[in-house]
Amino acid sequence: MFPSDLSSLLPLALSFAPFSALWGPSAVSPTVRLDQATVYGTTNGPVTSYLNIPFAEPPYAIVLAIVTEPRPESEDCLNLNVLVPAGTAADAKLPVIVFIYGGGFSVGENTQYNGEVMVRRSVEMGQPIIYTAVNYRLHAFGFLGGQEVKEAGIGNIGLHDQREGLRWIKKYIGAFGGDPNKVTIWGPSAGGLSVGSHLVANDGDNEGLFRGAVLSCGTLLPTGDISDQQRFFDGIAADTGCATATDKLACLRIVPAENLTASAASIPNILDYPGLSASQWFPHADGSFLKEPVREAVLAGRIADVPFIAGGSLDEGTIFATGAWNITTDAEFLEYMRDLYFPGSSSEEVAPLLALYPNDPAQGSPFGTGEENQLAPMYKRVSAFQGDFFFESQRRSLLTMRSDKQPAWMYLVQRGRSKGFGYSHGTDIQSIARGEELTDYLIQFVATLDPNGGSGSNRMIPWPRYDPAARQMLVVLDGEERLAVERDDAREEALEFLAALSLKYPL
To answer: Per-residue pLDDT tens for 453-476?
Structure first.
């Protein structure tokens, strides 16, 4: 049940209830002692789970909170889960993976991925690891933009939530048998974009919170400054009766939660006509935590020097193009790209994209399907553009800029095709959720910082490191040949053009 007033949530955010009040002990419950609290777990076969552990204490919440997000299942949003191999000793010092969920920074929770799959498989491989997953605040509660937010120093609250979760893990994971110096962060979609943001946060100072990173179906954000999101702040202020307030932030703090949620939900999202240009809830440079746009930070070399894996699926843009089916002419497509994806650009600057993304279904996404799957007059054209703009060009840009400076690997999933959408966004996470080969590679990476490291799996092939010259990637396939190594060279001219133009005209 939602509290009726956001101010009533602040005491809840600042409280830190005793763990024993959250879980009752049982005769067989494994327990972990943390400072003055005891955490009770439950064991299911080879996995012991410790769930809904609060990780945020004062003064953290009071410094950052504009508002605290209410949740229908719990008033305590800022919690995390820890899953360990059953029987893990406190001094085991196992490697740790931290999962940051996706959902466009507007939906999601830390139960999105079943971490038991990875822990079970790690035990089978003889490479036991610990899995953790953090919650963070979303949409207007976690990523409200605008000049007022920037000046108050409270931008990107959701990223701060994630960072605070990482600090908690650094401090306490040893009590669960984990090694605080062997932490890898991993996320899909918005989670991958979050991982990319943590790589460049604080000028690339990761505070020793992680030693490796995995960016799945999302790498670098093509976004600019948080003050550029003023229209969304003003719209929410108007919707909630705060437009004329002397202190709009103070006014928003006392807006009923359901009103703020309704206002946020009324803004077109990434599944509507704007598609992936609907950037209102994406992290933006805030002048403090993200001191500059993510791409600019990477170009300047202000990025954590840790090994990383970056990957995704072949048809990343298909599910985001379904809201733009009314685009039927070159002029409409040009206007769509210019006005929504490259704000401030001219038609002349954007026009080359008409040739790079022609209205030829055989060249569109889902790729490799010929004339099939053209669900609307320009569906496959828009799909190809969106996927390359937001995912592929940013991923290749990251790998090109950094793979000769820090160990990097790339994968591409072409398994699990769906009708009309191909190997769509998130297909790679489905493969990992099923415990397939990618799961083994991730476990090896978490354990050794090399997806080829260690032993215990007989279904892997050598995965070469990515470098700007050879550009080799692991391809996950359907059919008898399950894995292959290929060159990452699709649509080179188009991806280079998109990377350059999105840097000049960020969202």
So the answer is: 777 888 999 999 999 999 999 999
67 by Cβ neighbours in 10 Å (0-12 / 13-18 / 19+) ranks as buried
Indicate the SS3 state at residue 190.
Answer: helix
pLDDT digits (tens, 9 = 90+) for 490-506: 999 999 999 999 999 99
Q: Would strands 178-188 and 212-216 be described as parallel, antiparallel, or unpaired?
A: parallel
Q: Which two tokens stand for residue 257?
A: 């939660």
Place of tokens 């359901």: 258
491, two tokens: 């649509």
Domain map (residue ranges) of the chain: 6-328+331-504
- List pLDDT tens digits, range 360-372: 999 999 999 999 9
- Cα separation values, 19 from 16, 176, 287, Å: 9, 15, 36
Q: How far apart are CA 188 and CA 186, in angstroms?
A: 7
Long-range Cβ pairs for the range 365-368 (8 Å, 24+): 365/314, 365/315, 365/316, 365/317, 365/318, 365/422, 366/314, 366/315, 366/318, 366/417, 366/420, 366/421, 366/422, 366/423, 366/424, 367/314, 367/315, 367/422, 368/314
Q: For residue 94, which phi and psi values (nearest 5 degrees)?
A: -80, 150
How large is the angle between the packed helices 115-124 and 437-448, nearest 10 degrees? Answer: 70
Which residues are designated catalytic?
189, 316, 425
pTM: 0.92
Provide the token pair at 209.
């919170």
Phi/psi of residue 85, each to 5°? Answer: -60, 135
Residue 370 DSSP symbol: T
Report yes or no: 16 and 34 within 8 Å, Cβ to Cβ: no
CATH code of the region 6-328+331-504: 3.40.50.1820
Helix ranges, 92-172 (H): 115-124, 139-142, 147-152, 157-172
Q: Which amino acid is at 502?
A: S
CA–CA separation, 388 and 450 (whole Å): 27
125 Cβ contact list (under 8 Å, min separation 6):
440, 443, 444, 454, 455, 456, 457
